[in-house]
Amino acid sequence: MRNRPISQTQPISGISLGRRRLLTLLAATSLIGASAKAQSKPVRVGILSGEDEDIWRIVQENARATGLTIEVVTFSEGNPINAALAAGDLDANAFQHGPYLQAQNTALGSHIVPVGNTYFAPIGFYSKKWKTLSTIPDGATIGVPADPTNEGRALKLLQFLGLLKISPDAGEMPTTLDISENPKNLTIKELDDPVLARSLPDLDAGVVITEWAYKAGIDLKSERLARESMDNNPYINFIAVNEPDAHAIWVQPLVSAFQKPNVRAKLLEAYHGAIIPSWT
């Protein structure tokens, strides 16, 4: 006898096909409802005040079109932003790169993780006195950032430029104590970022964070002797969240709202090409 075709109402494992389809539809509807509910609560994002506020206004508009509401919370410096995120006062932040976050996680005992790239702000080697690397004199005074993360980054750039060498045992965040060779007898002066940027006229040259160079009125083109490459660079900025939220339903819409062509255009406009959008 031929097997009889299974009808829409013939039970399979105790549940009819029609009922299974209904249950699947109900489950999908439930997920959609959960998504809408999850996104109905504003996502609080901590950022640095300044040009990034203009960027995030566009991100907020992009997110609103998908049903996600973003509440931007501004800070004047970086350290409190991770502390606020770790304490649950924020849902996400967007201002930092990997080595900085690693140091912050260690200091705070936090578990904050990146979830999507934003932009790359290459540090530059600037001088108001000298026009080329080859004219930097012996005994020159070179300014570098005083904070451990960016000091190491600056020293690595000076090493890449052939101005000094760092001990191979220095690790990811070298300091001036890790300089193993200094053929030009450079004096390395550690200064806080805003002071360093403003002090450039008094130095032979300085490795300055892009944001502070821009704020201090340094000419990012004519006074820049060199800058970092983005290739395989750990200092790319990103959106970050507490690890338990890494796969939360609002995370991908948040990242997608940032990684849009209109945000890319605004980044290039707001920073006059000094930073590079870092998503593909």
From TrEMBL:
The keyword Signal applies. It is a lipid-anchor. It comes from the Bacteria. The keyword Oxidoreductase does not apply. Keywords: Lipoprotein, Membrane, Palmitate, Signal. This is Lipoprotein. It holds the Pfam family Lipoprotein_9. Belongs to the nlpA lipoprotein family. Gene3D superfamilies: Periplasmic binding protein-like II (3.40.190.10). InterPro entries: Lipoprotein_NlpA. It is found in: Membrane. It comes from Gluconobacter kondonii. Its main location: membrane.
